[in-house]
Design brief:
The protein has ten helices and seven strands. Strands 3-2-1-4-5-7-6 form a seven-stranded mixed β-sheet, sandwiched between helices. The radius of gyration is 17 Å and the shape is globular. With 236 residues, the chain is of the alpha/beta class. It has a single domain, classed as Rossmann fold. Helices cover 37% and strands 22% of the residues.
């Protein structure tokens, strides 16, 4: 099955070493083991995990040259997607994984230890809170999120973390035209602009995906992000 992952990623221009394949294999084992104790994912069949978690996470290379990124934060990381696969394939990255459920954070800490991943920080809390801390505010080259939320809300969660000139990428599926239109005001308020939307089909599947790629153009007013639950209840 891991050879299948290797084949699919080669179509994205990613070549895996045997060590990286072993890391993905162990990651899958830990995911299934822990999923019996806590809710990590509804996707557990190995081929589906490869397509919908591993390959999907790494499809970012269709819209971003990861060699230009030194630091990233994954907002609402859940079981570690896309942050952990990105760290495995691009070990030079400094990665922060943020989630509001401490049980998931404990899982991610174990994964980082088992896979011997260095320079990984696991953060337990809300995106709105950590974005106010100097150690994280406007400190990252790249912010990524596969969280299920509208783009206006995600932008308010994520853009505060990236430096001026940094990039926010939202992983999306389905029709997103209306969502993009509705996010224009939010991006303007948050001192950001839409660079492009990369639409594609995951290798050897019929799964349609989009990467919404946003650049931060100026420093953000201190009042953003607003306190919970305003970003989700009253999107900009």
């Amino acid at each position: 099955m891991m050879q299948k992952l290797k084949s699919k990623l080669s179509e994205l221009g990613i070549k895996l070493t045997d060590y990286q394949l072993d890391q993905f294999d162990r990651y899958y084992e830990l995911l299934i083991e822990w999923n019996q104790k806590i809710n990590l994912t509804a996707i557990t069949e190995k081929n589906e995990v490869i397509d919908k978690h591993f390959v999907d996470s790494l499809s970012i290379v269709k819209g971003m040259d990861m060699s230009t990124v030194n630091s990233l934060i994954d907002i609402g990381t859940g079981a570690g997607f896309p942050g952990i696969p990105l760290k495995i394939v691009f070990p030079h990255l400094e990665v922060a994984l943020l989630d509001s459920l401490n049980k998931r954070i404990n899982f991610l800490k174990l994964v980082s230890e088992e896979l011997k991943l260095e320079k990984v920080t696991c953060l337990h809390g809300r995106a709105e809170d950590f974005a106010k801390e100097p150690a994280h505010r406007e400190q990252y080259d790249l912010c990524v999120s596969r969280a299920v939320a509208n783009l206006s809300t995600l932008s308010e969660y994520c853009i505060p973390y990236i430096r001026v000139g940094g990039i926010f990428i939202s992983y999306k599926s389905g029709e997103i035209g209306d969502e993009l239109s509705a996010s224009k005001l939010a991006l303007s308020i948050l001192k950001a602009k839409l660079l492009k939307v990369e639409e594609f089909v995951l290798p050897e599947t019929e799964i349609n995906r989009s990467l919404v790629i946003v650049e931060k153009v100026d420093k953000l007013p201190g009042k953003y992000p607003r306190k919970a639950p305003l970003p989700s209840k009253k999107p900009l």
